[in-house]
Design brief:
The chain has about 250 residues and is an alpha/beta fold. The protein has a single domain (about 10-245), classed as Rossmann fold (3-Layer(aba) Sandwich). The protein is built from 9 helices and 7 strands, in the order βαβαβαβαβααβαααβ. The protein has helices at about 20-30, 40-55, 70-85, 105-135, 145-150, 155-175, 190-195, 200-210, 220-230, and strands at about 10, 35-40, 60-65, 90, 135-145, 180-185, 240-245. The protein has a 7-stranded parallel beta sheet, with helices on both faces. The longest helix is centred in the middle third of the chain and has 29 residues, at about 105-135. InterPro entries: KR_dom (IPR057326), NAD(P)-bd_dom_sf (IPR036291), Sc_DH/Rdtase_CS (IPR020904), SDR (IPR050259), SDR_fam (IPR002347). Keywords: Oxidoreductase. This is 3-oxoacyl-[acyl-carrier-protein] reductase FabG. Belongs to the short-chain dehydrogenases/reductases (SDR) family.
Length: about 250
């Protein structure tokens, strides 16, 4: 299915690397003008912008602190000043720090909740009136299979991603009258993310053994789901959790 996002303006948080990078490139390739955000990786963000532009798309990047309302509003203002009214928000920015439950520090709990749950709340709250004014839009949250069954060393991360699913459902209810849909993509085990986390090949192979598809996922496969949910082809899909996990959880 060819996804057409011509005329749309997308705002992707944490778009400089990993899944966020793949999402920004996918949306740009489908015709959307893409504003991606980063916290510290300005060079990586610039490289993503360059890749989208070199393929004939439109893109820009903004530094943003996802837990700060003022920073979010400034980045959204910049995106709309550059490309026009916002129509797609992808709440992708997230962090994790795998730790045994009894060793999780309160500060780590707070920081993960702030980025992974408060961040999407603030971004969605800032985006909704902009989308409503423009006649509607789509919000896609990037969740995780960890939020559905709980990883053994990710209590804080799993809790934040479980909360994100519920937050998405509330946003969908609230935004419906304004023509705004909201869905969550629950990503499974993605190879590039696991490699970035420093997992050894033996651990990766062990993880893949429990997946029905028999392999780890790719960031582009998550991005494909996001592009679909952001498009008119998904016009009757809202308040849902779409699993992209190869059958790891069902």
């Amino acid at each position: 299915m060819a996804i057409d996002l011509q005329g749309r303006v997308a705002f992707v948080t944490g778009g400089s690397r990993g899944i966020g990078r793949a999402i920004a490139i996918r949306l740009g390739g489908a015709g959307a003008a893409v504003a991606l955000t980063y916290r510290v990786e300005g060079d990586a963000a610039a490289a993503v912008v360059a890749e989208i532009v070199s393929a004939g798309g439109r893109a820009t990047a903004f530094p943003m602190e996802v837990t700060d309302r003022t920073s979010i509003e400034a980045a959204l203002d910049g995106a709309e000043a550059t490309f026009g009214p916002l129509s797609i928000l992808v709440n992708n920015a997230g962090i994790n720090k795998p730790t045994d439950f009894d060793r999780i520090e309160e500060a780590d709990w707070d920081s993960i909740m702030a980025v992974n749950l408060k961040g999407p709340f603030l971004c969605s709250q800032a985006a909704l009136p902009r989308m409503a004014k423009a006649g509607g839009g789509a919000i896609v949250n990037i969740g995780s299979v960890s939020g559905q069954y709980g990883g053994p060393r990710t209590a804080h991360y799993a809790a934040s991603k479980a909360g994100l699913i519920s937050l998405g459902q509330v946003i969908a209810r609230f935004g419906a009258a304004s023509g705004v849909r909201c869905n969550t993509v629950a990503a499974g085990l993605i190879g590039s993310e696991m490699a970035a986390a420093g997992m050894q090949s033996a651990a990766v192979q062990q993880a893949a053994a429990g997946i029905v598809a028999g392999r780890l996922g790719e960031a582009r496969e998550v991005a494909d789901a996001v592009a679909f949910l952001a498009s008119d082809e998904a016009s009757y899909i809202t308040a849902q959790t779409v699993n992209v996990n190869g059958g790891l959880y069902f």
